Amino acid sequence: MAPRTLAGTQGDDEEVTVSIEDAIGKSWDGEGATAKELRKLLPSTAKRISVDLMSGGGSAVEGLQIYNVLKEHPAHVTVNIGAYAASAATVIAMAGDDVTIAPNGIFMVHGARSLVSGTSDDLRKEADVLDMITGQAIDLYSEKSHLGREKIAEIVKAETYMTAKEALANGFVDRIRTQKADVKQFASLTASMCTRELPASVREHFEAEAQQSHAAEEQQKETNMNDLTKTLLAAAGVTDEAGLAQRVTHLLKLESTIGAASAEEAVGIALAWKSSHEALPKLQGELAQLKADAEGRELDAALAKARDEKRVTPALEAQVREQLKSGDMTLKGAQAMLAALAPIPALDAGRSQSEPGATAAVTQLNGKTFAQLSGAERAALRKQDPTLYDELKKAGN
Question: What is the pTM of this model?
Fold first, then answer.
């Protein structure tokens, strides 16, 4: 894989480390990472493959094939991104079962590019090929990321550079490596080398203590993670009875949305969300009252206009208000109905009633008895206010 691509094996070829720190695909000087050379470095007996990746990209097609070589190998593949992974190199990263990135790493994605000359038909054909290659890369990103294909397509089209935290939040990598972990690994290795010179009984004693300490530390980590997970899920309203798939889905959504610097910060944010949700019913009630008040004012304006234009009677107005209050009619429906009403000629000068009283009946409308109303006036009145029509008709008989 060119002089800059190194490989090492330990434990009877069960663990293999490959370093890709060059362009993807052969260049004019003969250097560059290729799928053919990578395949030679990966024994079929390997159970764990680590790929140290630091590349600005190169051939998109070669990147896809390197992805295939890693993905089709039965070993567990870990891709460790260094300071920079761009273009075709990010496609290779998607082959990892576990993808890590350095804290100062940069992750860049963009659409496929090429240099071509020829006729207009040649250029159009090349554009189609580029779209196809870009689409294949987007498919691979979508399998890894939670963003969805449409959002990823936007990111790719815009040629997006991401920091390590942004790449993690967007789901392109699984975790960010830390120096603290590297220091622990170095200390563990140093201690192991030093104990080799001790007598067997003493070395066994130290090794037993180290194993117990490591087991206790892992158990504590698991306990802390379970507690944090339960707190986050409780803040999201997910109960212990919820299915595993639902809990995992909610947790991943919280982690990607929060983007906190630490687990403690994520818990704090989640608890703040929970507090906000507890106050939500009161806020919803206040909002509903504000909405009702605003609708009342709009209805008053519509009815006032209808009254001014002699298109509504008091009985119809009361009916509209009652239907809106009961929910049988919406504000828009009431406004549309009032606007569609035709003017009632008999309402031009108001109504005449008999002497006030609880049983007073309407005897005239616009100074006319029922017998004096024209056929058109009777028809309009009967359509707009059947109750008033009946009252006038009864009084005239």
Answer: 0.46
